[in-house]
Write a structure and sequence with these properties.
Elements (H helix, E strand, L loop, with lengths): L5 H9 L3 H20 L3 H14 L4 H16 L3 H14 L4 H13 L3 H14 L4 H13 L3 H14 L4 H13 L3 H14 L4 H13 L3 H14 L4 H11 L4 E5 L11 E2 L13 E10 L5 H5 L4 E5 L28 E5 L4 E9 L7 E2 L4 E5 L15 E2 L7
Antiparallel strand pairs: 1-3, 2-7, 3-6, 4-8, 5-6, 8-9
Length: about 400
């Protein structure tokens, strides 16, 4: 029979058992979580470290590592957070969730290639978790590896066919790759599952903006404003960048553009009473967005012509035979000035009296057209790129 000495009894009385240590680790973990929830990250990290040191290979330690890395990240100590995750992965090499969390942290910090490595590790460890596969697809997408992203998100859909996330991400991939029709198809599938999915509406809005289907894009923008406010500025900017510029106002204080066929040129300005005389007049055109200044100032992008279409309020001289006295207007302006603050072009054009001094003109059917671009390179909206007296621009 083994003899128990007084020293053995003293040692057993002063040395905590494994159960006692685990309880102490759990208590530290609990206090750390309380501090974390109170956003006292310094105290939280201290308690999590204590919990790990007490029971470094237990479930408590795994949770403490995860919380500690989050607390370090929340307090801006990113490098320490990364180190904490890596140490946790060393201690718990089969815990795929640690790789996923580290990947997400690296991704948020703009280290997409390192994040992708962690997502790949998470999938290798646990390929049946759709969240791991989804994160891997997002890693590929961030690096513009669209083929791999497509393949990965199709796996997500196979794994979770009733979850909108896979269809959303596949649509996102197609949109970024310029495959807009396929993107729209997948995004509509996502909406069929979750109709108020704000991120899906954002993607649809981006597609419509890139297609210059602005009415649809603005409808999606309204939804994004309610369902995904953080994406509103990006979609609004995309609409602004892709929208075709338009005339929204045209006016002049020098001429009465309602004067129709047979108007005497001599009545437009005293100087035009003389045969062969010239008169310069200025029209102002207001755009709905910022224009490329050089494009606006280029007189060859402007054309002044006689209306020949019912769409512009009827033909010049109302379609009747044009008299021999009719004068021509120079087809291009003399000069054009552009005010980028007022988004206004001042277009100066020239009218020349005929050699007999009895010239006539139909001002109401002169057409001013512009074929330039905005600051983003978009050409004018063909429905609002010209003006005459009968245009809807007032």
């Amino acid at each position: 029979m083994e003899t128990i000495t007084a020293a053995d009894l003293l040692f057993s009385a002063t040395t905590p058992s494994l159960a006692m240590i685990d309880n102490m680790a759990a208590s530290s973990l609990g206090r750390g979580i309380d501090a974390f929830m109170a956003k006292d990250y310094t105290a939280a990290v201290r308690e999590f470290r204590r919990s790990i040191s007490l029971s470094p290979f237990s479930e408590n330690a795994l949770n403490a590592f995860e919380y500690m890395a989050q607390a370090l990240g929340q307090s801006g100590r990113i490098r320490e957070a990364v180190t904490a995750y890596k140490e946790a992965i060393r201690v718990f090499p089969s815990a795929d969730g640690l790789n996923l969390s580290l990947g997400n942290l690296l991704f948020a910090e703009g280290h997409q290639e390192e994040a992708l490595e962690q997502y790949q590790a998470a999938v290798r460890k646990n390929p049946v978790v759709s969240g791991n596969v989804y994160a891997l697809g997002q890693g590929y997408l961030a690096l513009e590896q669209y083929g791999k992203a497509e393949e990965t998100f199709k796996q997500v859909i196979e794994m979770s066919p009733r979850d909108s996330a896979g269809y959303y991400a596949l649509g996102q991939t197609y949109r970024m790759a310029g495959r807009w029709d396929e993107a729209e198809e997948q995004l509509q599938k996502a909406l069929a599952i979750k109709k108020d999915f704000g991120y899906v509406h954002y993607e649809l809005g981006m597609i419509y903006a890139q297609r210059q289907e602005m009415a649809k894009a603005r409808e999606e923008l309204e939804i994004v404003a309610k369902k995904a406010q953080e994406l509103f500025p990006d979609l609004q900017l995309a609409i602004e960048q892709n929208a075709a510029p338009r005339f929204i106002l045209a006016y002049t204080g020098q001429l009465n553009l309602s004067l129709g066929p047979g108007t005497k040129v001599s009545s437009l300005a005293p100087s035009l009473a003389e045969p062969g005389a010239t008169g310069d007049f200025t029209m102002r055109f207001v755009f709905d967005k910022a224009m490329d200044a050089a494009s606006v100032r280029n007189v060859m992008n402007w054309e002044i012509s006689r209306s020949s279409s019912l769409e512009t309020g009827g033909s010049y001289n109302w379609g009747r035979k044009i008299p021999a006295s009719e004068v021509n207007v120079a087809p291009h302006p003399v000069r054009v000035l552009y005010d980028p603050e007022l988004l206004t072009a001042r277009v100066t054009f020239r009218i020349t009296q005929n050699a007999d001094g009895n010239g006539t003109i139909d001002l109401s059917h002169l057409v001013f057209s512009f074929r330039g671009t905005d600051v983003h390179g978009n050409v004018m909206d063909p429905g609002a790129d010209q003006y005459n007296r009968f245009s809807r621009i007032v």
